[in-house]
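Entry 12.
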Amino acid sequence: MNIKKLLTYLLLLTAGWCDASVIKVYPSPAKGSCLYFQVLPPTSCTTQITLYNEIGRQVLRSSHEVTNGTNKICVCISALAPGLYFYRVEYRLSDYQYENAGTGKFTVIR
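Predicted 3D structure (C-alpha coordinates):
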Protein backbone atom coordinates (compact mmCIF):
# COMPACT_ATOMS: atom_id res chain seq x y z
CA MET A 1 0.00 0.00 0.00
CA ASN A 2 1.57 3.31 -0.98
CA ILE A 3 1.51 6.40 1.21
CA LYS A 4 -1.40 8.02 -0.68
CA LYS A 5 -3.59 4.93 -0.20
CA LEU A 6 -2.60 4.74 3.47
CA LEU A 7 -3.49 8.39 4.08
CA THR A 8 -6.85 7.93 2.32
CA TYR A 9 -7.48 4.81 4.38
CA LEU A 10 -6.64 6.60 7.63
CA LEU A 11 -8.84 9.55 6.68
CA LEU A 12 -11.80 7.23 6.11
CA LEU A 13 -11.03 5.44 9.35
CA THR A 14 -10.99 8.63 11.43
CA ALA A 15 -14.12 9.90 9.68
CA GLY A 16 -16.08 7.03 11.21
CA TRP A 17 -16.48 4.99 8.03
CA CYS A 18 -17.02 1.86 10.10
CA ASP A 19 -20.45 1.30 11.58
CA ALA A 20 -19.64 0.02 15.07
CA SER A 21 -23.05 -1.65 15.35
CA VAL A 22 -22.21 -3.98 12.44
CA ILE A 23 -18.63 -5.03 13.36
CA LYS A 24 -17.27 -5.63 16.83
CA VAL A 25 -13.61 -6.53 17.41
CA TYR A 26 -12.36 -7.94 20.72
CA PRO A 27 -10.46 -8.29 22.98
CA SER A 28 -9.05 -4.81 23.03
CA PRO A 29 -6.13 -4.64 23.43
CA ALA A 30 -5.46 -8.05 21.93
CA LYS A 31 -2.95 -10.15 23.83
CA GLY A 32 -3.81 -13.76 23.08
CA SER A 33 -3.55 -15.79 19.92
CA CYS A 34 -7.03 -14.98 18.61
CA LEU A 35 -8.74 -11.72 17.66
CA TYR A 36 -12.50 -12.04 17.33
CA PHE A 37 -14.61 -10.24 14.75
CA GLN A 38 -18.37 -10.21 15.22
CA VAL A 39 -19.93 -9.40 11.86
CA LEU A 40 -23.49 -9.02 10.63
CA PRO A 41 -23.51 -9.57 6.85
CA PRO A 42 -26.60 -8.71 4.79
CA THR A 43 -26.71 -12.23 3.34
CA SER A 44 -24.72 -15.48 3.34
CA CYS A 45 -21.38 -14.67 1.72
CA THR A 46 -17.61 -14.82 2.01
CA THR A 47 -16.19 -12.34 4.49
CA GLN A 48 -12.64 -11.15 3.88
CA ILE A 49 -10.62 -9.70 6.75
CA THR A 50 -7.39 -7.87 5.97
CA LEU A 51 -4.94 -6.64 8.61
CA TYR A 52 -2.38 -3.88 8.07
CA ASN A 53 0.50 -2.78 10.28
CA GLU A 54 1.00 0.83 11.30
CA ILE A 55 2.85 1.71 8.08
CA GLY A 56 0.09 0.28 5.89
CA ARG A 57 1.72 -3.02 4.91
CA GLN A 58 -0.69 -5.93 4.66
CA VAL A 59 0.24 -8.51 7.29
CA LEU A 60 -2.68 -10.93 7.10
CA ARG A 61 -5.66 -11.73 4.90
CA SER A 62 -8.24 -14.38 5.66
CA SER A 63 -11.57 -15.41 4.13
CA HIS A 64 -14.48 -16.93 6.00
CA GLU A 65 -17.86 -18.27 4.91
CA VAL A 66 -20.62 -16.64 6.95
CA THR A 67 -24.40 -16.78 7.05
CA ASN A 68 -27.00 -14.04 7.29
CA GLY A 69 -27.11 -12.80 10.87
CA THR A 70 -24.49 -12.50 13.59
CA ASN A 71 -21.26 -14.45 13.01
CA LYS A 72 -18.17 -14.75 15.21
CA ILE A 73 -14.84 -15.11 13.37
CA CYS A 74 -11.51 -15.92 15.04
CA VAL A 75 -8.41 -14.56 13.30
CA CYS A 76 -5.05 -15.94 14.52
CA ILE A 77 -2.77 -13.07 15.54
CA SER A 78 -0.06 -15.07 17.33
CA ALA A 79 2.52 -14.16 14.66
CA LEU A 80 1.89 -10.41 14.99
CA ALA A 81 4.39 -8.29 16.90
CA PRO A 82 3.11 -5.87 19.55
CA GLY A 83 1.87 -2.63 18.03
CA LEU A 84 -0.94 -0.77 16.32
CA TYR A 85 -2.82 -2.46 13.48
CA PHE A 86 -5.72 -1.60 11.18
CA TYR A 87 -8.37 -3.92 9.77
CA ARG A 88 -10.69 -3.89 6.80
CA VAL A 89 -13.70 -6.20 6.58
CA GLU A 90 -15.36 -6.81 3.21
CA TYR A 91 -18.31 -8.95 2.16
CA ARG A 92 -17.99 -10.75 -1.17
CA LEU A 93 -21.55 -10.63 -2.47
CA SER A 94 -20.77 -12.07 -5.93
CA ASP A 95 -17.75 -12.94 -8.08
CA TYR A 96 -17.09 -9.30 -8.90
CA GLN A 97 -18.82 -7.38 -6.14
CA TYR A 98 -17.29 -6.58 -2.76
CA GLU A 99 -18.99 -4.44 -0.15
CA ASN A 100 -16.86 -2.67 2.44
CA ALA A 101 -18.30 -3.60 5.80
CA GLY A 102 -15.97 -1.44 7.83
CA THR A 103 -12.53 -0.49 9.00
CA GLY A 104 -10.97 0.07 12.37
CA LYS A 105 -7.89 -0.29 14.48
CA PHE A 106 -6.67 -2.46 17.32
CA THR A 107 -3.56 -2.88 19.44
CA VAL A 108 -1.60 -6.06 20.09
CA ILE A 109 0.24 -6.37 23.42
CA ARG A 110 2.28 -9.32 24.73
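Annotation: Residues 3-108 form a domain with the Immunoglobulin-like fold (CATH 2.60.40.1930). The chain has one domain: 3-108.
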